[in-house]
């Protein structure tokens, strides 16, 4: 569930460049494994961190993340409209 289209495409490109040679292929597998372990550790410790932070700070962080998500959504929509109005 954590792997979006960008992550999947990146791994596909890196694996195609590695061409199943031993060292580059192992490097890609190690990078993916390290990323998965880091994500697991962050999610595992999230509940502990949430208990330590005040509720007002958690609310503020939630609003900031929502604002960032809205900004990314607006950028996607604006880019789509721009591409529709100025086709290649």
Descriptive overview:
By secondary structure, the protein is mainly α. The protein has helices at residues 5-18, 22-52, 55-85. Helix 1 packs antiparallel against helix 2. The model has no long low-confidence stretch (mean pLDDT 93).
Looking at this protein, list some descriptive labels.
88 residues, mainly alpha
Name the poorly predicted regions. Answer: none
**First CA to last CA: what distance?**
34 Å
* Main sheet: strands, sense, barrel: none
Question: Percent of residues in beta strands?
Answer: under 5%
Q: For the residues shown, what is the average pLDDT? A: 93
Helix percentage range: over 70%
Number of helices: 3
Rg over CA atoms, rounded to whole Å, is 19 Å
- The string of secondary-structure elements, in order, is HHH
How many E-type strands?
0
Note the overall shape. flat
Structural class: mainly alpha
Topology record:
Blueprint: H1 5-18, H2 22-52, H3 55-85
Summarize the structure.
With 88 residues, this protein is an all-alpha fold.
